[in-house]
Amino acid sequence: QGQEKLSCNPKKENGTHVVLCELGNPMKAGARITVDMELSVSGLEDMGDAITFHLQLRSKNSPSPSHASVTVTVPVEAEAEMELRGNSLPATMVLPTSWHGVQGSRRLEDHGIRVEHVYELHNKGPGTVSGVTLSLAVPHLLGEHVLLYLLELGTEGGMSCSQHPALNPAQV
């Protein structure tokens, strides 16, 4: 009939996390109650796609050793919003129409103007992420001609990269 807050106590039994809630003391025989519980569980990143709760109703006064139990499986959905930001330095570049690269040169300036592309991948949350793959296609050829000569690739923050095509093939 009325609503009451439950008194619940978390504890650990045999390596399992248990929450004990007292529903009524004393409770009349044949009483029917409805319980709505909200649980906050941390560390779900490695739990897979579901978490299972085992619920059991016990009575301190019951002479029966068997206690009714039910298993509830709740799907887990991780949520994280990723954002990719990118810049080119310089932002714009114009080569004169009379400019030509010097074949066989190992000087960087003989191959064009240096352009640095910087990309930042940010997790805006609320969850954490792992195993993220960012695929970045860079147009390095225009027909038979070199459009962008890929000199180097670097990362920060514990990321790893695999590159294709080969970087700095002329060893400039």
Descriptive overview:
With 172 residues, the protein is mainly β. It folds into 2 domains: 7-75, no CATH class; 78-171, no CATH class. The chain has strands at 7-13, 16-22, 50-56, 69-75, 80-89, 116-126, 141-142, 145-146.
Q: How is the biggest beta sheet arranged? A: 2 strands, antiparallel
Q: Provide the spatial order of strands within the biggest beta sheet.
A: 1-2
Total number of β-strand segments? 8
Which residue ranges are poorly predicted, with pLDDT under 50 across at least 5 consecutive positions? none
Query: Could you say which overall geometry the principal axes of the C-alpha atoms support?
Result: rod-shaped
- Whole-number count of domains: 2
Assembly annotation: single chain
Total helices: the number is 0
Helix content: under 10%
- Percent range for β-strand residues: 25-35%
Distance between the termini: 82 Å
Mean pLDDT: 80
Give the topology string: H per helix, E per strand: EEEEEEEE
Gyration radius, in Å: 31 Å
Protein structure class: mainly beta
Pfam families: Integrin_A_Ig_2, Integrin_A_Ig_3
Organism: Quiscalus mexicanus (Great-tailed grackle)
Domain Integrin alpha third immunoglobulin-like: 83-171
Domain Integrin alpha second immunoglobulin-like: 3-76
